[in-house]
Specification:
Layout (H helix, E strand, L loop, with lengths): L8 E5 L4 H12 L3 E6 L5 H12 L3 E5 L7 H11 L6 E4 L14 H27 L4 E6 L14 H18 L5 E6 L8 H9 L1 H7 L3 H13 L4 E2 L3 H12 L2 H22 L1
Helix pairs in contact: 1-2, 1-8, 3-4, 4-5, 6-7, 6-10
Bound molecules: NADP nicotinamide-adenine-dinucleotide phosphate.
NADP nicotinamide-adenine-dinucleotide phosphate binds next to helix 1.
């Protein structure tokens, strides 16, 4: 294990399943106490109790829909009312879809922007004073490799992740002189929920080679965060794609992504 940081308290959004749950486990096994959030009736209580018993750490939780206008404030008040402290903020909760923009619903797009961006900004703003008051503070924002490319068939999700990446880099620079660092996690496909697994299966060999398990991504995320890396890209193959993508001509990048994701979206729809 890279670093033991048992004095930390981690607030993790979207911790009931998938990557958020795997990140919570990585934190717990390092002895960190947990504050977990997810939607109501998501099995969050069970996750909190299991991790607490398995690793002997304190684990609090709050079920809340972060797209509700007052939700970040309510979560912040919950933390203050229980006299909890937070030294690590993991903004993981996120949603997206994989289809043509004209086939998407306004509600889908609104939810994506509200959760991926507005809730993240609000929660970061509310928690920053507490993070700055800790001996060491960390913010881990879950972006995506989609942040690096305008992605046809993910026309709102990908920009929402680009927002997270740029927000994280800008905030990290503002906080350079403090003890709080900001990391943007940029994973490729992860075998999390059924929808993601179906899309990875439908994506053929390329998608299957580049995808990772939640546990692998969570491990890379926590190690990178504790090393205060500004951008964390899990997996050597994905790091290579990132470098190639930066130097390839943009029209070529768009066509390859369009071909790949268009095919991907159609096949996933057919299978689903
Ligand atoms: N999976 C991938 O291929 C992939 C790739 C790159 C980046 N990412 C990013 O990684 C993060 C986690 O993805 P994942 O695949 O692990 O997702 P997931 O399995 O669908 O889990 C999402 C988590 O967010 C919670 N959540 C959803 N809507 C919420 C809301 N309105 N308010 C509060 N919590 C909410 C869910 O709670 P419930 O359990 O109650 O639904 C769940 O805990 C996301 O930001 C995603 O964009 C994923």
């Amino acid at each position: 294990m890279h670093q033991v940081a048992s004095y930390h308290q981690a607030l993790i959004t979207g911790a009931s399943q998938g990557l958020g749950k795997a990140i919570a486990e990585q934190c717990a096994r390092r002895g960190m106490s947990l504050i977990l959030t997810a939607l109501p009736n998501s099995g969050l209580a069970q996750t909190a109790i299991e991790l607490s018993h398995r690793y002997g750490v304190r684990s609090d939780y709050m079920e809340i829909d972060l797209t509700e206008p007052q939700a970040p404030e309510m979560l912040h008040r919950f933390i203050l009312s229980r006299r909890l402290t937070v030294s690590i903020l993991v903004n993981n909760a996120g949603v997206g879809y994989n289809s043509r923009f004209e086939d998407s619903s306004l509600q889908e797009n609104e939810r994506c922007i509200l959760l991926n961006n507005l809730a993240l900004v609000k929660l970061t703003h509310l928690m920053l004073p507490m993070l700055k008051s800790q001996p060491d503070g960390y913010i881990l924002n879950v972006s995506s490799m989609a942040a690096f490319f305008p992605m046809p068939f993910m026309p709102v999700y990908a920009p929402s992740k680009a927002f997270i990446l740029n927000f994280s880099l800008a905030l990290g620079e503002e906080l350079r002189a403090t003890r709080v660092s900001v990391s943007a996690l940029c994973p490729n496909g992860i075998r999390t929920n059924e929808d993601c697994v179906r899309r990875i299966e439908a994506g053929g060999l390329a998608a299957q080679w580049t995808c990772m398990n939640p546990e692998q991504v969570a491990q890379a995320a926590i190690v990178g965060m504790l090393r205060r890396r500004a951008i964390i890209i899990p997996g050597v193959f994905n790091q290579t794609i990132f470098v190639i993508g930066r130097f390839a001509p943009l029209p070529l990048v768009y066509s390859v992504i369009s071909l790949f994701w268009g095919h991907f979206a159609q096949r996933a729809k057919a299978i689903g």
